[in-house]
């Protein structure tokens, strides 16, 4: 019997390419403006292939010869751009309905952003006050099945 279900985020419950591609293109434009890369057409499929890689793996795969300072700055541009897009509600979720389960305020905010009920886990790293507004509270993983 399965005791734990773990969901991947990128591409499983969230269409990450919708915010990652514009963020990558912004960073690539910056690299081009710094004259450290030549402008080239980069296909969406190539960009999608980097999802799931950490930033070091991505840049080492795409531009292994690029100086690490530029890789670090481009990574920061990607991250900042993705955060801005999420805050502007440009993140694209796969069709719901959803039930979000988590232990931190950010998890609750995620649930609210996709208009979903939220189970606040008091056994994780968050505290009850941090999870105020949760639809349900559980003190153990076993309690979740009674709700879902």
Please explain how this structure is put together.
The chain is mainly alpha-helical. The chain has 6 helices and 3 strands. The chain folds into 2 domains: 17-87; 100-147, no CATH class. Helix 1 crosses helix 4 (68-87). The longest helix has 20 residues, at 68-87. The mean pLDDT is 88.
Please tag this protein with its features.
148 residues; mainly alpha; 2 domains; 3-stranded parallel β-sheet; 6 helices; 43% helix; 7% strand
Write the layout of secondary structure elements.
Elements (H helix, E strand, L loop, with lengths): L16 H17 L10 H5 L6 H8 L5 H20 L12 E3 L2 H9 L4 E4 L14 E3 L5 H4 L1
Parallel strand pairs: 1-2, 2-3
Q: What fraction of the residues are assigned to beta strands by DSSP?
A: 5-15%
Biggest beta sheet attributes: 3 strands, parallel
**What is the mean predicted local confidence, pLDDT?**
88
Flag low-confidence runs: none
Structural class, by secondary structure, is mainly alpha
Helices and strands, in N-to-C order? HHHHEHEEH
Tell me the span between the first and last alpha carbons.
Answer: 17 Å
Count of all domains:
2
Tally of helical runs = 6
Helix content: 40-55%
Count every beta strand, where a strand is a DSSP E run of 2 or more residues. 3
Across the major sheet, the strand order is: 1-2-3
Radius of gyration, in angstroms, nearest whole number:
19 Å
Principal-axes geometry comes out as elongated
Organism: Dorea longicatena
GO molecular function: phosphoglycolate phosphatase activity
Protein name: Bifunctional 5'-methylthioadenosine/S-adenosylhomocysteine nucleosidase/phosphatase
GO cellular component, one term: cytosol
């Amino acid at each position: 019997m399965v005791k734990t279900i773990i969901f991947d985020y990128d591409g499983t419950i969230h269409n990450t390419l919708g915010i990652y591609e514009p963020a990558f293109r912004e960073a690539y434009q910056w690299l081009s403006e710094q004259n450290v890369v030549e402008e080239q057409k980069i296909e969406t499929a190539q960009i999608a292939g980097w999802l799931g890689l950490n930033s070091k793996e991505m840049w080492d795969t795409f531009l292994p010869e690029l100086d690490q300072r530029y890789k670090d700055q481009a990574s920061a541009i990607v991250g900042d751009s993705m955060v801005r897009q999420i805050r502007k509600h440009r993140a694209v979720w796969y069709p719901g309905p959803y039930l979000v389960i988590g232990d931190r305020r950010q998890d609750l905010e995620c649930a609210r952003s996709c208009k979903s009920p939220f189970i606040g886990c008091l056994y994780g790293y968050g505290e009850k006050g941090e999870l105020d507004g949760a639809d349900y509270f559980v003190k153990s993983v076993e309690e979740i099945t009674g709700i879902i």
